[in-house]
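Reading a protein record of the kind used here takes only a little practice. To see the layout at work, look at the sequence and tokens printed below.
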Amino acid sequence: MDAKTNFLQNYELEGERLKIFTLPAPVLKKVAEPVTEFNDELKQLAKDMLFTMYKAPGVGLAAPQVGKSIRMFVVDIDYNREETTLADGSTDYILSEFNPQVYINPVFKEKDGEVVCEEGCLSVPGIYEEVKRAEHIVLEWQDLEGNTHSQEFEGFRAVCLQHENDHLDGIVFLDRLSLLKKNLLTKKFLKTKKKKGL
């Protein structure tokens, strides 16, 4: 593992904050392309995506959400976020205990069981809804060096991986709801977005 990939170990919060695309951005509806080059540019994107995810804040972020239609997402469901009051009376957050993970070209080898979990999305901020997912999964993916890994996941981590992987297939979590609920929540989100002038 070279120094550029090593940023995942002893992770320090640094990078560039990227723009997060929200509905109805066309990039969110596209099927992302496989990653074929494991170079410094990819590593920098992963680093910037992690920085953006932590600052948002979120527990997962897929490349299409920052306008890059490639099959990569980052996840960290373990970090701590603590609100603190600064000397001038304003508030900020202290982030710690990072456990950043990068998944490239992920493929589900197994999916079974069923779990219902409330989900939200950085591309549909302010909307939360219960979504049905597989409870247990086996995922195969590549790391930033192109090495292949396979692991079993369950619980919230499995839900998070399925949510992020959906983004690579042009699926937003609202697409997993009934048509009625999807239309209702999409309308609600777009109305709020318009009101805020976003």
Notes: The helical segments are 40-55, 155-168, 179-195. Residues 58 and 101 are 13 Å apart (CA to CA). Strands lie at 60-62, 72-75, 80-85, 91-96, 101-112, 115-119, 129-133, 136-142, 148-154.
